[in-house]
């Protein structure tokens, strides 16, 4: 866990669009002791919303949260 935290902390902000898209795949099934929140905020430093389509039912809760935040922030239209 500590290694993953150090890896996230080593990423220079803002991330590129390509980096943000790659980081979305790093979300696990839980919040990893708060690391998922840090990952979400890191992804959001990138340009434009990473997700423009609703991930749909059964999506990872953090991926859904990332999409919902983009909708609530007015970055993309809601479904």
TrEMBL record:
Highest taxon listed in the record's lineage: Bacteria
Descriptive protein name: Uncharacterized protein
